[in-house]
Each structure stands twice: as C-alpha cells, then as structure tokens.
Amino acid sequence: MKPFLPTPLLSPLAGIALNNLRRVVAPRVFPVRSFTAFAPSAPRIYAFAKYTSKKKQPNMTTMATTLKGEPLDKAALESLLRRRMFYTPSFEIYGGVAGLYDYGPPGCALQANIIDIWRKHFILEEDMLEVDCTVLTPHDVLKTSGHVDKFADWMCKDPKNGEILRADHFVEDVLEARLKGDKEARGQKVEEKEEDPKRKKKKSKGHEALKLDDAVVKEYEEVLAQIDNYNGEQLGELIKKYDLRNPATGEQPSPPVAFNLMFQTSIGPSSNLRGYLRPETAQGQFLNFAKLLEFNTGQMPFASASIGKSYRNEISPRAGLLRVREFLMAEIEHFVDPEGHKKHHRFHEVEHIELELLDRHTQLSGQTKTKRVSIGQAVRDGTVDNETLGYFLARIHLFLKKIGIDQNKIRFRQHMANEMAHYACDCWDAELLTSSGWVECVGCADRSAYDLSVHAKKTGAPLIVRQRLDEPKVIEEWEIELERKKFGPFFKKDGRAVEAAIMATTQGERGKLAKELEENGKVVINVPGVGDGKVEVSKDLLAIKWQKRVENIREYTPNVIEPSFGIGRILYSLIEHNYWTRASEGGDEARGVLSFPPAVAPTKVLIVPLSSNKDFTPTVRKLSQKLRSAGISSRVDDSSASIGKRYSRNDELGTPFGVTVDFQTIKDGTVTLRERDSTRQVRAEEDEIINAIRALVEGTKTWQDIESELPLFEGQDVDLTLR
Amino acid sequence: MKPFLPTPLLSPLAGIALNNLRRVVAPRVFPVRSFTAFAPSAPRIYAFAKYTSKKKQPNMTTMATTLKGEPLDKAALESLLRRRMFYTPSFEIYGGVAGLYDYGPPGCALQANIIDIWRKHFILEEDMLEVDCTVLTPHDVLKTSGHVDKFADWMCKDPKNGEILRADHFVEDVLEARLKGDKEARGQKVEEKEEDPKRKKKKSKGHEALKLDDAVVKEYEEVLAQIDNYNGEQLGELIKKYDLRNPATGEQPSPPVAFNLMFQTSIGPSSNLRGYLRPETAQGQFLNFAKLLEFNTGQMPFASASIGKSYRNEISPRAGLLRVREFLMAEIEHFVDPEGHKKHHRFHEVEHIELELLDRHTQLSGQTKTKRVSIGQAVRDGTVDNETLGYFLARIHLFLKKIGIDQNKIRFRQHMANEMAHYACDCWDAELLTSSGWVECVGCADRSAYDLSVHAKKTGAPLIVRQRLDEPKVIEEWEIELERKKFGPFFKKDGRAVEAAIMATTQGERGKLAKELEENGKVVINVPGVGDGKVEVSKDLLAIKWQKRVENIREYTPNVIEPSFGIGRILYSLIEHNYWTRASEGGDEARGVLSFPPAVAPTKVLIVPLSSNKDFTPTVRKLSQKLRSAGISSRVDDSSASIGKRYSRNDELGTPFGVTVDFQTIKDGTVTLRERDSTRQVRAEEDEIINAIRALVEGTKTWQDIESELPLFEGQDVDLTLR
C-alpha cells in the first residue's frame, strides 16, 4: 500500500503508541542540541534528533501557567518584554530579518548572569578546561564531521508564489489540517494550539470541515507518527500521493531538495578556502583534544567547555527566541575512558538527587507520565546508562534550579531508539515546559568515540590517550613464523597468495594447524586460485608457536559525554517561569512581575528617592557608589512618578530589591529595603542595608533571615500609593 | 614629476617631518578600531585610519623589555605561550587557517577576567545600556553605513606564482628594501626590525646593497611618507613607475583591485538576502538607538555598550593575536548633545589624572616625545577637544592600569588631520608598547552624528532626541502670506514660478520687500523665464509680516563618542608587559613568570600537597571546595614533581598564590601561602589564609598588608628545592 515508506523501526503496535504520543508529549520546537542523532549511518540528509520533529502539544494556552499557577496571558508577557527591551528583532528599522534577535539591556544582563552562574557551576566547580575557538571553520573540518553532507533539511517551493516550505513541516501541516477538518465534520472537539498567528491564518485557509474515510484517517495518522523518518524523495512521494497543496495558492509544491543549514563564506582573498559558520562549538574542542590532554598533564577523565555563538540557517524560523539563526551555546565535552562502565568519582555527591524522568520504555508504551526517582536509583536500575551521564543530568538539574527554573516544569526525556544515533548508548534532554510546550533546552548525549575517530583518521593526528598500564598486560597467542629464505624460492609466483592465506588464519585455526604441523610435519592450507586450491606447507618453511608478549601502554580513543545548553531557550523559559501578575493578589491586572532569583536578576537594586528634592541627591549618589563597590548592579529612578509606580515599573524588570531614600534618611541615615515578591520592607542604617543586599544577592541569606534581623517598616507602604 | 600623486595634505616641510616620523613612531600593526577615519568623502576604497599604515618602529627587539626592564626574549615567551596553551592556531591538525586562533584554558580565563573587569569598570560604573546584537547583518545596513562600498583594501596578484599581495604593503616593502640596500652600499648602519620570519626571508631576497641617486632616495622617502594616501590606481602607477617586482618571482604584480574586507554569506533558504559578518559591533547599537533612548526614559546623555565578536577578512594576516580575522571587541557608544561643548558631569572625578599624550602638533613637527599632563589641563588648553572625550581617555587609562598594563608602556596618540575623518573633531588611540612596536589597542573617537543620520535618512526612522525646552524658544521673523484666491488666477501658468521665487527670498530680502510693499503698494520680483525676468506683485496678492513663533521642543541628532577596545590585542600586550624571568634574580633562565594582577590572573591559587601521601587528600579537597565557594578559581597540582618545580610551572601561568599542605597541616590545620612575585610565604590557619586570598584577589589588601598581619614562613623555602 505504501511501498515507498521506510521499513518501520517499531512494531505496528508501537507505531500506534507513538502516534498517540505525537499529539501529547514532545515539543514542537526544535532542539538546540540536535547533533546527538547524527550518525554516519543516518540518511544522507541529516535529520537530527528532533530537528525534524514537530510533534505538538495540545491546549498549550491552557497548560502554560504563571509562577503563581494562573493561566499565562502570553500577549501581556510579550508586550512587557518588548516594552522593557528584553529582546527585540534585529535590524527592525530595516524591516528585520527572521530568526535574528538583539538583546536589550535587561536581556543582556540576564544572559550575562546565566553565563556567569553556568561558568561557576560547571567550569570552576569541576576544573573544566574552557576554550574559546573560532566560529569561522574551514570546509574540510565540517566535511569530516559529516556536517557538509548531512546537516540539511528538505525544502520545496511553491511554483506560483515562490514560497519556500520545509517539506516535513508542509506534509505535516496539510495532513493535520485534513484530520482537523474530519474531526469537525464528525462534530468532535478540536484541540487549539498556540502558535504564530501568520502560520495559523495560513493553515486555516487549507482547513475545511470534510469527513474522511476511517482508513484514510488511520493512514494519515501513521504517516504523521513517522514523519521524522522520511527522506526527501519519500516526502515528495507523499506530496504526490495525497495531492498535498499549499493552502496559500492551491498549488502542489516542487519536489523536495536538500538545503544545508550552515552559513557559508570564503576565507581569505583568493576565495579558494570555503568556510562555514560553525553549527556547534563542539568541533573546536575535539580538534584541540591532544593539546587539552597535554594541558591536563595527560590525566583522564577531564572535560573541556566552551561558551559561544553558533549558527544555523533555518529555512523559516518562527517562535521568537526558541528558534533562531544565531544563538549562544554553552557546551561541555567530558572525555572518559570507555572501559570501566564510565564511573564518575563525584557521583556519590549527587546520587540522592531526584529527577522527573520520562524514559524511552514509558514513551514507547504511549505514556507520558514521568517518574520521580533519585539519579542513584536510575543508574542502578539501568534507566540511565552510566554514572557519568547520571552525574551530569543531576548537575544540569541543579543548575536549572539555581537560576530559577520552575521545579514543576522540568523533565528529563530519554531519546527513543529512532531518535538516537547508533553510536549513542543513551541520550537525555532536559525539557522545560513553556507556552510552546515542552522545549528541549539542554541535551545530554554520549557521542561515543565518533568525532575523535573521524578527525584522527582524516588528519593522522593522534587523538588518543596513551595510558601506562599499572600492571603490564601479558598477551599469549599463536604466532606464525615463516622461513623466508626458503619460502619465496619454494612457492615462486604463488608466494604472496600462500603467505596471505597463512597470515589470515584465526587463532583457533592456528591451534589446529600447529597440532597438524607437529604431528604430520606439514599442513594443508586453502589458497583459492593456486593449483586445486589446496597447498601443502612443510615445517621447514613454517613454524607456529605459542608466544608471550608484554604490553605496557594501552591506547584508546576516549568517549565523549556532552551536556549542551541553548542559552536563549533557557533564558526565555526562565522568563516565562518567573512571570506573574499582581492580579492574583487583587491588584491591578497589568502589574506584571518577573520574580528572578537575585543572582540572576538583570539589576539587583532600584534606588528611589522619595521626590526630586535636591537634598536626596548626595545620599543617592553615595548609595550607588557603595553598591557598585560591592559589585552589585543598581539603577536610580528619580522620575516624578509615585514611589509605588516606580517600584511597579521595576517589578517588570525583575529587580528584586528597592531602597527608598526619604526625609528620615537625611535625619538618621536609615533607608528602607523593599523585597519585590512580598513587597514587604525593612528599615535600617544604610550600611546594614547594603550588607543585607549583598547577603541576599550572594544567596547566603534569605528575605526571611533579613526580616528576622532588621526591623520591619510599615509606616508607609509604598505599594498602597498605587492601589 | 609625479602627476598622479594626490594633492599633499601637508606642506612640503610637514611632509619631511612626517617622513622622519614614519620610521620612528607609529605602529606597524593595524588598528583594531579603524573606522574613525572612514568618511563619506574618503576615497572610494576605504583606507581607514592606520589600516593602511605600516609605519615602522626601528630596533624593536632591543626596545621590547620584560616587566623587570630586561630585554625581552620573544622566542622564550612564545614557547611558553604555546606550551601552556594560552592560545593556539585554530584547526592546526588540519594545517591551520591564517588569522584564526583558539584560546586555550589560561587564555580563555584571562580573556573572561579582562571582560569581567571591563564590564564592571565601564557598564556597571556608568549605568551603560549593554546590548548583544547579532553578528549576521543584512546587506542594506552595511550599504548605508558605507562598509559595502568602502571597507576594502587594495590587492594585487603575482602573475607567476599567483601570490596575493596587499598593494600598499608591497610598494612599501620593495621601496624600503631598496633604501636599505642603498644604506648598506653607503656603509651606513641598517636598523633591524622584529617581524614575521617568513616575511623577512622573502624581503631579503629583494634586497641588494645598491647605491641610489640622492634624488631617488628623497623621492622614495616622500612616497613612503604618504603611503596611506594613495588609492588603487595610484599604487598601480607607483608599481609601474618604479618597476616594483615581487622578490619571490621577479615579476611585476597585476594592477591593484579592491578587496572588500567583510565576510559575505546568504541568509535564509532563497539566497536572496545577502548578508555579512559585522566588521564592528557599533552598527547594531546605532540601529537600536530609538529603543535605547526610550529605555533610558528619554534622558540624555547615555551610553550603550556591547561585547562581541567582529570579523575582517584580512588579505594576509600575520603577527599572531595582533592581526586576526575573528576578534573580540568591546565597544561603547556614548550619545551626547552636540550643543553645550560636550561637558561630562563626572569629569571632575578624573581631571587630576595624568596621561602621556602625543598630540598631533608634536607629531607634525616630527617629534615623538609625549607630554605628561592632567586630562583637566589637556581639555582646558584645547589639546583634547572636550570633557566627554577627556573623561573617556582617563577612564580608558584607569582600566588599562587596573588590568595590569605597564604604566610606562601606554601613550595616547592623537590622530593627525590626514588620518582622521572630516566629521571627527578629535580622535585619540591608546597605544601599548610591545615587541611589535606601539600597538593601537583602544580607539576613542568622536563619530559625530554621521551614523545615526545616514540610517535615519535611509529608513525614515526618527533616530533623534526630542528635547522639551525649559524655556520655550521664541522665534521672530518675516513671513510671506499669499492671497491664494487671487494669486493663481492673476498669474495663471506663471503662478508656480512666481510663488517659488517669492518663497525663496531670504530674511534680509523680505525685510526690504516689506518696506517696498508698504511704500509702493507693490514689489518687483526676479523670476527668470517669466516675461523679461521681472514680475510686479501688488499688495492685494501678497503680505509680508513680522511674525512671532514659539517652539517648545528641540529636535537633534546626538553625536557619538566611541571608545572601542580590541580585547585580543590588549590581552597579548598584557602578557608581554607582565612577563619576566627569574634570570634577573640569578635563577634559572628558563623560569618564566607572568606577573598578572590577582584580579586578572587566569587561576588565583595553586594548591600543592607536599607529596602524594593520601593523608593530604581530605585537606586538599576541603580547601578546593572552600575556595570555590568563595568564587576563587584554584587548581591542584599533586604530581610527583618537587614543590619548587610545581610552583615554577605555575608561575608561567601567572597564578599569583600558592598554598602548600604539609604534615604540619594535618597536625594544626595551618597552611602556607606563597606570593608568586616575591616567592615569600606566610603561614596561618586555613580560614585565615582563605580570607587573605579573598582580600588579595578583590584588591582590598596588598601582599605587604598580609605579610604584616600573618607570620612569615621561612622554615622551608620551597624555591630552594629548585635552586
């Protein structure tokens, strides 16, 4: 019936399970780190992990919630982010370019703080070797790594309006529209998804309430279940078979062609040296492996790490910061001996940590329920393959927790067999729940020895570890010795063929031959093409001896465990997770708050003089200066707005603390300190307040501690001024 | 004699002075920030500032000194940098790519620390608005900014071996070789320069001891003095006129053609959107000006800042980190009202700071002697144009001092008239003295309103400030009122011409016309092409009144003061400035030391257990953990080398402090703390030592303070173990 479809990787039953799964679990957003499923045996056109995965999350709008558990008003949040310049489309005054965004001051500070914590949490904590490699990469490197041939998506073109469509997205969109029309015709409830309005509008054109045959529905669902497995030709055949047409024009698009996702350029003046912008930071780390190992005085295991921009020329980027063409990555390459079960010497420090795991077996059975288990248990029972992988999953979890990701909106999802490259023994994604569904924000994969091996093979560079064995390894085996002086002259032109046949014998065969030689004084060897195919070799030409050999050095290519972070996606998820409005407290609905933890907040302190009275100026200036000296970022708002309004404006920026300078300050040098989330205040001398802020920002004290140490201030609730 | 030469910008006398200057002052290395001389009126091919400047420093080898003032052994330093992986050629196992370098762990940490200090010193201190804009930039933006047309160098090709030469470098090299040959033939001493060995070898081929006519010598010197002023055609004519040949082949290269220095690529799948990798971060900041102004609640002045990679496709990069194709920049765009003499409200904080200034007048008189003056004095006497520029020069100086740049190897050199774009009223470079001469590491230019103006004109976006005037501005002037109902019918087809002629009158003319109208009841207007060119207009068609108008808003385009930092150049200079060897103390010559200040050092503490005795392990682990919690980077060296050797190895990495754990530690919990530069040690309890380290790293205490507080340890001078 569908002769062109690939051999299903799953049983028909599993196919149906997956089909259910498709509509309820996986993110519609592409993974940051998608290299994990890229393997030499993958189809020529590289379909990396969930790169082609467009599985959708129903009812996202109702699922997305604020920090306080209320439904998320995404339009209000987006208005806030635009208004306060967290990020903005690049080159907007020139009309903008899809998939490119600039970070404004709060976004930029948020990003810098996330990176700072990342660097301390991973690099400093683990003595990782940070490197900063170039983005510009010559062709040969990415040819070897496989990106030149395989890092591509399939695209097709509308013959009428020239619109370029990503083939798999197109097939999926049209089939889903038909299924939706069928449901409507049957009077069933249709799930609504939150997505790009332009896209929605376009799709609605192609969506009519038209009942389909039951068999057709089943066929469409089966196609959608394995949409990730089709290559370009197969997608083209699906388009023809089902007569899929672009809703915008009513035309069938052209057959899909490969579109490599790397940005290409030329290096140097002669234009001979083709180059690309790297699609990941990993390759630079692999190429420096030998130097890094030497820097680490030859000791294994060790990790390198890199923070930098990478580039992917998406065919049609949407979804804001979640899918962009230029993005900041933070990647770790942990090099480990493949022998010894990839133990980790600090695993005991994290084994008690509990994670929400969604393993592959659960997914294959059509379930999406996560299991909350300790990482120690997960490694013991084999859910997570090894300690090193488990260690990093726990460390990733701790990092996300530290920066303020909602603990109820993290899960670790294991790749299924058809998502994962053949060399990977295990692969998990940290997914964060947002208004766009579960978004892969961190990938944690075992890349095995693949990269080091291909680069070593191509260049001849020894990307290996030479380990001096504590105990020399004694090897005993059958060895062949030829009496060359006689052997050649005896066999003449057949000499090489006979020798090759002898040398090709296995240890088992040699054992038998040795016995035969001892017993008969000769052996008979099969040498196809020489005489009748059987050749006698006597013991004056040949000896077969049981030999002992001692090896002092073991050479091996390390395996790589790679935690890979998409900083932009984490940043966006962090914003959503920390957003809420005072509406839930009976206040003004428009009063958005971003409850970032102090360490990650773009600015730590807002300084608010009660009025524009010049008497406050020296105090404000001194306060700013003291905070600066303490390395704490602050901003002064001396506008004429009420104090409540000024605090409220700043809640939108996520500033955790506010200091008010009033007439009392001039008398006794005390100021008030306001905490953003509770809006509660304490009052104390300036230096005490600065110490309190420092402790709060460094995380050595909580607001509760401060409230218990310093007198509460209730005389003048600044927030009342707004209500 | 040289009809194709451009009109000299300087008098003949000044030309000779410059000629002397060329050989003694300016750096042979290209500036990081070269945009300052780029102006719309510049030659079509953009020769930016010293981009084409190849003025050389004689006897650099003897001039370059270590931190201790001894001659610098550059080969030894380079060996150290390679061995300890400060940086390394990118893609080395694939043969490398010129102008691309990867930073290894110490280089990467050094870079991160420089950036961290930069961010605190400028962004935090001044409440600057940091943005992070994309590197990918569409064609239109860089077309408007002028980069597409003008950001180019001239290159020519050797017809025999295909070698590509930068035309100005080629002309300069060959003429200099001839002058050198002439000097040798005259038996004069020839100055030796330190440079790329490949280049040197190539040049020596073309260099024969051949005496030239005095007139020829003079002519060559005049050409070299103005080498920056030639365009491609002129360089081509010089090549023909003097029959300049590539020493490698003996051939005359092809006529120069323009080579744009931007890396080009295509954005999106249709390849229609041409794009470039940005050559500077500035444009992204300019395009966001309106949003940034709004973010700053409309208040002026303010500054934006950006730290990020930029790209220049150099024709033939050499000189290591000093001239690369991918580099990290940190740029500030300070937006200021062009009225009011560009005062700066914090200028009083820096006015006492003394700088080494090399002003343009000194240079034009052929001198290179800097003047040490306070920036307050320099602004008062007009050497530095305005307070804002002066403020930033002082702040740049303080930053360079803070990170550990040698105070005797900084100067601020003013651009001369022919280096500077016409819109710049002043421009100064912070130059650092290295083994490659004076290297421009920071540029500080006044870009005027150029960029905002051209982008506003192109896009129609209002890149302006609307200032509410404190006192409304009253404008009184002559205004024309036409009696339109009668005017049109009266003049019929000539109406428009007559009206245009009337409206084109100046205020002065209108005053006279008003008087004429009052006296004669009519006026005579010159209207070419209408009748005899004179037209009578009577007072029933026209009134001319003295009118009063009130303006409440003033609109203006801000000017931009731009301090722009080349981080890689600063980093390399910092390494050279802090390098010395213990040789000067009678120790082993090979014992290199990098005396970075603690705040900037890649790693702060080396932890050294006395031996590999397992009893030390818990203490070492606890110590590492405590330092980590305090945010202080440390590394453990538990190798079997002697303590002296281990410290010595670490001196090469610039680690300022060492902590030794020995048997006494196990008894009483005390450890020793060693200071890198003096190799002196104190001994105290672990926590006291950690507090001391923290104070040293934060800069609140000096080593002298620590020595006065904690008991000196002399029982076991670890350095003796090496001597």
UniProtKB/TrEMBL annotation, chains A, B:
Task: Please list the residue ranges that the record marks as compositionally biased, kind Basic and acidic residues.
Answer: 182-198
Q: Does the keyword Aminoacyl-tRNA synthetase apply?
A: yes
Spell out the Gene3D superfamilies in the cross-references.
3.30.40.230, 3.30.720.200, Anticodon-binding domain (3.40.50.800), Bira Bifunctional Protein, Domain 2 (3.30.930.10)
Q: What is its main location?
A: cytoplasm
CDD domains recorded: GlyRS-like_core, GlyRS_anticodon
Pfam families in the record: HGTP_anticodon
Q: Which stretches does the entry tag as region Disordered? A: 182-207
Q: InterPro entries of this UniProt entry? A: aa-tRNA-synth_II, aa-tRNA-synth_II/BPL/LPL, Anticodon-bd, Anticodon-bd_dom_sf, Gly-tRNA_synthase/POLG2, GlyRS-like_core, tRNA-synt_gly
State any GO CC term.
Answer: mitochondrion
Question: Which key words are in the record?
Answer: Aminoacyl-tRNA synthetase, ATP-binding, Cytoplasm, Ligase, Nucleotide-binding, Protein biosynthesis, Transferase
Q: Which reaction does it catalyse?
A: 2 ATP + H(+) = P(1),P(4)-bis(5'-adenosyl) tetraphosphate + diphosphate
Q: Where is the Aminoacyl-transfer RNA synthetases class-II family profile domain?
A: 220-609
- Keyword match Disulfide bond: no
- Which GO MF terms does the UniProt record name? ATP binding; glycine-tRNA ligase activity; transferase activity
GO biological process assignments: mitochondrial glycyl-tRNA aminoacylation
Instruction: Give the UniProt subcellular location, in the record's own words.
Output: Cytoplasm
What's the Enzyme Commission number for this chain?
6.1.1.14
Give the source's domain of life in one word. Answer: Eukaryota
Similarity remark: Belongs to the class-II aminoacyl-tRNA synthetase family.
Q: What does the annotation say about its assembly with partners?
A: Homodimer.
Q: What does this protein do?
A: Catalyzes the ATP-dependent ligation of glycine to the 3'-end of its cognate tRNA, via the formation of an aminoacyl-adenylate intermediate (Gly-AMP). Also produces diadenosine tetraphosphate (Ap4A), a universal pleiotropic signaling molecule needed for cell regulation pathways, by direct condensation of 2 ATPs. Thereby, may play a special role in Ap4A homeostasis.
Extract the NCBIfam families matched here: glyS_dimeric, PRK04173.1
Q: Tell me what this protein is called.
A: glycine--tRNA ligase
Upper lineage: Eukaryota, Fungi, Dikarya, Ascomycota, Pezizomycotina
